[in-house]
Specification:
Layout (H helix, E strand, L loop, with lengths): L3 E2 L4 H9 L4 H5 L2 H12 L4 E5 L5 H7 L8 E6 L14 H10 L21 H24 L4 E8 L13 E8 L8 E9 L5 H23 L20 H4 L2 E2 L8 H8 L5 E6 L3 E6 L2 E2 L7 H4 L5 H9 L2 E6 L4 E8 L13 E4 H4 L5 H19 L10 E4 L4 E4 L4 E2 L4 E9 L5 E6 L11 E4 L6 H13 L9 E8 L4 E9 L18 E6 H14 L5 H9 L15 H10 L2
Parallel strand pairs: 1-6, 2-3, 2-4, 8-12, 17-21
Antiparallel strand pairs: 4-5, 5-6, 7-11, 8-9, 9-10, 9-13, 11-12, 14-15, 15-16, 17-18, 17-19, 18-22, 20-21
Length: 576
């Protein structure tokens, strides 16, 4: 039986919504962060059908970094009568949902709701009971249709006006369907009634959405008690803030680098955070989408060094990256040798390849990881002056190399183009595979911009050199850019089309640069993008091989992960 619970007071929900001015921060509430992390850690998926929440459950889940690996879409069925075409094309489901909302539906059902206040009218009780049946039918059907591990269904009333008359406050019935461990049949794993104390529409939508996330986590535990539930305690090694200016950018504070006294103070701050770079290609992660950023105050930092001398040297050679958020916490890059290992008391931190794993990070942490990697690699390759050959010392927070003759040098980025080529009708995309890519991974064409060459000319030249295809110069269109310190590039992304008369132009690859190149239909690329999002870091062969070994993926085409500019180009085309 369902137990009615008023989960939050109006004051609590108002405080939660007003705690930040950032809409994304207010969407990614703690219940949804926990749900996404639990789904990711157990490699499971969910879908959503919601009514009175109007898409808030879906958008809250999607606002959590990494949610694309666990959620592929859902439905807002605000009006059951008019939503037939939205319901997976299932006319029988539409009929069942319509019947569940009829006045006679509750009379035919012996299962009553426990805990509903007695003062409610019989008509109101019957209305609530209809949502019990509605959410059950919807959750069961969507879990089967979408072939997900779980399905969340929500139906209720938010206010400020209510039907039937006499209702003074909102309610929602939530249901989660799924399969128990080792079972094939889908069943209702959890269901509950959420009673509000008011008719504030926005507050009620937030209330019901958070309750839905919490119920799904409960259902996951019912389906498989062995699933490790993600805790809600924040990791102190990670950037934590609900303030928009704290969360969305790194203040590089370049104006402070030449002030020796200020830099000395920043270097000695015990709360300074550190991006740990191992060798030339790995950084220290705290989770799939967050870096571990230990401070000098934390004992864990000391466990990374075998000797005090090694720690002293690493601290002296840190690079100042800037300051984080309103609190202006200093952030440094710290280099460690290739053979460094993480100890057992590492707070679950681990080293991972920056090139393949950084795209999985949140935007801020991705920027931080790439910036730290760029500076570390630049310092390693610029130990001597490029003008006179004298040894250099690093000044201005480690961001400038100054030789004994007084010459100074700063890091540079090499401009590179990357382009997604389509046919004139934009029905097919030309994707290629280089020797360093796994056999299943196809991506956009890329190359360096030569001296004296503009970007558009570089696009046309690279495409013709690598695959023998001519593009229409007037179709070349800038999309976006991305720092790519492997070793020191800045990628500038474009779309370009072939001439209409060429159809699907013949491909003639340069075997020195390209292993294979093909024209792919948009539908095939869409399916490859979906599969990529399910797996995550597909540049890591072990990630894909594990999915193949488990029988979770039997395809032949994947595209780069989200967070990589090549994928931005692909997604931009798919969304046209």
């Amino acid at each position: 039986p369902l137990q009615a619970r008023a989960l939050y007071s109006l004051r609590h929900v108002k405080r939660q919504l007003s705690s930040t001015t950032d809409s994304q921060s207010s969407l990614a509430t703690q219940p949804f962060q926990r749900l996404v992390e639990t789904l990711k850690s157990s490699t499971q998926t969910c879908t959503i059908i919601e009514s009175s929440c109007g898409g808030l459950i879906s958008s809250s889940l999607m606002s959590v970094p990494g949610s694309s690996r666990v959620y592929f879409g859902g439905t807002v069925a605000y009006s059951t009568k008019r939503a037939g075409k939205l319901l997976c094309g299932d006319e029988e489901l539409h009929d069942r949902l319509l019947k569940s909302t009829s006045p006679a539906a509750s009379d035919d059902d012996n299962k009553m709701i426990v805990g509903v206040e007695e003062h409610l009218s019989e008509e109101t009780k019957a209305y609530i009971q209809s949502k019990v049946k509605w959410t059950q039918e919807a959750a069961l059907s969507y879990c089967k249709h979408m072939d997900t591990d779980f399905a969340i269904a929500e139906g209720g009333a938010t206010g400020p006006t209510f039907h039937p008359e006499g209702m003074k406050a909102g309610f929602a019935v939530l249901a989660v369907a799924g399969r128990r461990s080792g079972q094939d049949d889908v069943e209702i794993l959890a269901q509950k009634l959420v009673l509000s104390t008011h008719g504030d529409r926005e507050m009620n939508m937030r209330l019901y959405a958070d309750a839905a996330a919490e119920l799904c986590v409960e259902a996951m535990n019912i389906a498989d008690p062995s699933i490790e539930m993600t805790t809600e305690q924040p990791d102190t090694n990670q950037v934590q803030s609900t303030n928009v200016t704290d969360k969305l950018y790194l203040d590089r504070s370049s104006h402070l680098r030449s002030d020796a006294e200020v830099m000395k103070e920043l270097y000695n701050r015990s709360d300074a955070q550190h991006v740990i770079v191992k060798g030339a290609s790995e950084v220290l992660f705290g989770s799939d989408d967050q870096l571990s950023l230990p401070t000098l105050e934390q004992p864990f930092l000391g466990t990374l060094f075998e000797t005090d001398d090694a720690k002293k040297e690493a601290l002296e050679n840190r690079t100042f990256l800037g300051r984080l958020g309103d609190e202006q916490t200093p952030l440094f890059a710290m280099y460690l040798p290739e053979d460094t290992n993480v100890s057992s008391d590492s707070n679950n931190s681990y080293f991972a390849n920056t090139r393949s794993r950084a795209p999985m990070l949140s935007p801020l942490h991705n920027e931080i990881a790439l910036t730290a990697t760029a500076y570390v690699n630049w310092r390693d390759s610029h130990r001597f002056c490029t003008r006179c050959g004298s040894p250099v010392e690093f000044v201005q927070g480690g961001t400038c190399a100054k030789c004994t003759s007084g010459h100074m040098a700063w890091p540079r980025q090499d401009p590179s183009i990357i382009v997604l080529v389509t046919n004139a009708e934009s029905t097919h995309a030309l994707l290629a595979r280089s020797p360093r890519h796994p056999s299943y991974l196809y991506t956009a064409l890329a190359g360096f911009v030569e001296p004296g060459e503009n970007m558009e000319t570089a696009v046309a030249r690279e495409v013709h050199e690598e695959v023998g295809v001519h593009v229409n110069h007037h179709s070349i269109n800038y999309i976006s850019s991305q720092a790519w310190p492997f070793p020191q590039s800045c990628m500038i992304g474009f779309h370009a089309k072939t001439n209409a008369a060429d159809g699907l132009a013949s491909i003639n690859i340069d075997p020195e640069e390209i292993v294979d190149a093909r024209w792919f239909e948009k539908e095939d690329v869409y399916l490859a993008a979906r599969d990529t999002d399910m797996m995550g870091a597909v540049l890591d062969r072990q990630v894909v091989e594990a999915q193949q070994a488990n029988g979770n993926w039997t395809g032949s085409l994947l595209v780069p992960s989200k967070g990589v500019l090549a994928r931005t180009l692909v997604d931009h085309w798919l969304e046209e």
